[in-house]
Amino acid sequence: MNNRKIRRRKKNTGKILLKVILGCFLVISVSFVSFVLLVNAVLPETETFEEAMTWAPSEPIEFPNFETANEPESEIAEEIIDDDPFRVFPFFLEENEQAYIAFWEENPDFDAETVVWKVNAVLHVPFYSDIRINNDPNPLLVNPSHRLPYGFEPARLVPIYSGNPNLLATVETVTAFHAMREAALLEGIDLVVTSAYRTAERQEVLFARQDGDGVVARPHHSEHQTGRALDLWGPLGLLDQSGPPTPSGIWVRENAHNFGFIVRYTEENTHITGIIPEPWHITYVTNEVSEFIYINRLSSLEEFVARNPTFQLNH
After folding, report:
1. How far is CA 156 from the centre of its chain?
2. In whole angstroms, what is the distance from residue 307 CA to residue 183 CA?
3. First to last CA, the chain
4. CATH T-level topology, domain 140-307
């Protein structure tokens, strides 16, 4: 009895095994046929299956770079900035890009922002070596790199003091000066103008008296020709020309910006202006500009113009 059961079990096991084998064969066959149909549908037409198996795309297939795609946006932005660090500044000028690169190579200790504004201010080359003509009817910047056109004269000049036709300045400059003088008088300080508008011919005479640049600007490069520059007289001559600062000089440095003036040539910006310190020389640039320079602690008018290359005086 037991022997019969054993033989029956062996027979059943054999049938099950055969069914499993046949099932696997059927699955493999269906998969193979499906694969062939897929190849024929997706790949180009070929004469034989062997050709299909050796087919390759005519152009390389580009797969997405998941590492880059997963990078934080800030890191990608930093890479872009590193590639071109100058364009992030609003005062970037396309025509100066090569000069930015060359100047930074010569001055690797400068940051990118300093490089951009100094090149914009034409400070990457020696004074008077790259001169641009300022054709604005109300020129703001006049210096070794920006000269006035030949024949330039201010639109309207008026006497600073009634009855003295030798001291002239623009209407706006005269108005601003008297407002500043009245404020100074309230604190016991009397501001006196000793020099103002000069013609190019007068400037040429003064320039001829000196040996080289740095003390007196060249003709057509002087702010005095714009009618907006004033030289102030102090208790001992030109304001703070020698000796320690006087109360008048200190007051002017601390308050001139409230009336649209700046002390144009300082000890700190000689390397930018190309002129020795002149604490007596003030320039009317409008309240908008003087306040901007004062609040932002800019080094000079050159820096203001370099950071605002499209700015023009409204009068």
Report:
1. 34
2. 31
3. 125
4. Muramoyl-pentapeptide Carboxypeptidase; domain 2 (3.30.1380)
For the record, the structure tokens of 228 come out as 């907006």
**Predicted confidence (pLDDT) per residue in 13-24, tens digit:** 555 655 656 665
Q: Which two tokens stand for residue 183?
A: 């404020």
CA distance 305 to 303: 6
**Ranges of the chain whose pLDDT falls below 50:** 1-11, 33, 36, 38-39, 42-47, 49, 52-53, 55, 61, 63-64, 66-69, 73-81
Contact 113, 138 (CB under 8 A): no
The CA–CA distances, whole Å, from 255 to 41, 104, 230, 251 equal 85, 36, 15, 6
Q: Where are the domains of the chain?
A: 2-53, 140-307
pTM over 0.85: no
Asked if 206 and 200 count as a contact pair (C-beta separation under 8 A), the reply is no
Cβ atoms of residues 274 and 288 within 8 Å: no
Q: Which two tokens stand for residue 63?
A: 């797969």
Count of C-beta atoms within a 10 Å radius of residue 146: 20
